[in-house]
Amino acid sequence: MDWDKLRGFHTVAEHLNMAHASRVLDISPSAISRQISSLESDLGCKLFHRHARGLSLTEQGNLMYQAVHEMVNRFAQVEAQVGESRTEPKGLVRIVAGTSLGGDWVAPRLAAFLDTYPEIRAELALREDIVLEDGAHDIAIVYERPHEAHLVFRHLMEFSICAYASPEYLAKYGVPSTPDDLDNHRIISHHGLSPFPGIDWLLKIGRDNHRPRQPTVRMDNTFAMRRAASTSAGLAPIPHFMAEARSDLVRVLSDYEAPRLDVWLVYPEALRKNRRIEVLIEYLVAEAKRDCLTLEAA
Predict the structure, then answer these.
(1) CATH 3.40.525.10 fits domain 91-158+261-297
(2) β-pairing, 48-51 with 139-142?
(3) pLDDT of the residue at 118
(4) C-alpha angle with apex 221: 220 to 222, nearest 5 degrees?
(5) Cα separation of 254 and 256, whole Å?
(6) CATH 3.40.190.10 in the chain, residues?
(7) What is the distance between the terminal CA atoms of the chain, rounded to a whole angstrom?
(8) pTM, full prediction
(9) pLDDT tens digits for 67-124?
(10) What is the mean pLDDT of the segment spanning 155-179?
(11) Domain 159-259, second-level architecture
(12) Nearest-CA neighbor of 248 among 172, 168, 163?
């Protein structure tokens, strides 16, 4: 089909107004009208209802609009990718991540990334109910590997949910060396929506599933749990990236296996060759590897 006809149809369908569409395309309303009539003749059906108040799509027109809209979006993405491949990466990249990982791991690393790529701007949204398909974000950082064919994924890191307490708390109550020792300690636990399976392991380790320990404090936010642990409220299960480098927290029960989770970078197939996405992903993966080497050396 003639691309000019499809573009004219798409613009009219977007605005449902010939005069407005003509201004967008910088051609006369009569020229757009001829394009639409010719396209309708090619297809053998009407695409618009024409009435005194303006235009509306027919059933066939709506089907055509959905198909052409997808083509226009894909063409715009390819056009942007071709342009970006010849220039320094620039523009906006939109990231969504869980509150803990996004706030405590991604956010502190944006400054160095933006220094390296000064033409890139970043948005970071923090939430636990992450949805990438709504089109509001370019990259999602999630704890489950996706299986949808239209999504591209890359492994970012693996982390553990370890047990931490403040030096002052341990000096006062002692350092637990076995799961049974936890029976004599204050435990801070998570309740409500949590992205971390197994975050309640301090309540269950050394116990059967029918007799978990009772927490002393329950919170629905890992930042609050870390803050409470650092001020001697008790022992808390905290993702290691939130606590390992802090002087106000000490890891305990390190000889016992803690829950481990994988982290994945996910983005739409349509953005596979987008330079902004590529350089950010490479940067985050390199940062995760560097952190892993630092922890192993320690």
Answers:
(1) no
(2) unpaired
(3) 93
(4) 130
(5) 5
(6) 91-158+261-297, 159-259
(7) 63
(8) 0.65
(9) 998 888 777 777 666 665 556 788 899 999 988 899 999 999 999 999 999 999 999 9
(10) 95
(11) 3-Layer(aba) Sandwich (3.40)
(12) 168
